[in-house]
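Why does residue order matter? Because the sequence determines the fold. Keep that principle in mind as you read this record.
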Amino acid sequence: MKLDTGVSVVHETIYRYIYTNKYNGGKLYKSLRHKNKKYHCRSNDYRSRGTIIDRVMIGKRPKIVERKSRIGDLEIDTVIGKGHKGALVTVVDRKSKFVLIKNVPSKEASVVTKALIEMIQPIKAITHTITSDNGKEFAYHKQVSAALDTDFYFANPYQSWQRGLNEHTNGLIREYFPKKTEFKNITDEQIVEVQNRLNARPRKVLGYKTPAEVFFDTITKSYVAV
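Structure:
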């Protein structure tokens, strides 16, 4: 609104309206991303995941990745379907917030590995690093690294903030595919539609540009510079 019309609304004003509506019996609060629910600590989840062989931890990742100054530093994760059946593999670029989503039948390491390679292959030339959590679905990280000729790092257990962008992006995806959604009933067309909606959503952190604008503008400028 500010970029297009010069008019803006403070977000606290919107929240006050929503909570007043809730106090008066309204249901607007149910459209909030977390619906006022408390954050679920995932530490117990990590304890049951086991150890992945030959992990390179995030402490060895180049410091430039933390600055989010270049395209090609990716965070990856999975969003799990109802009854732990089916999953969405998500890949998000740290600088532009550009996201890729793929529906897979299970979170088995072999399935997720194949999906990741297929998803990232088109942007292999500009991919620098990949960072994931310690889920067993990323056990074949060395295959991913070799196929894409890129470095693969793991965040420290119990420190989800090290992959905060991916956690946030998965929350956005959950707005369209809430928990208890059966992913087997979701079509590829629906996945693409959600992916496009997220990549076309203006983001405050990007100066209200969209992830697609930042991602493709940066790539275009880099090729022009060459």
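The CA atoms of residues 71 and 95 lie 6 Å apart.
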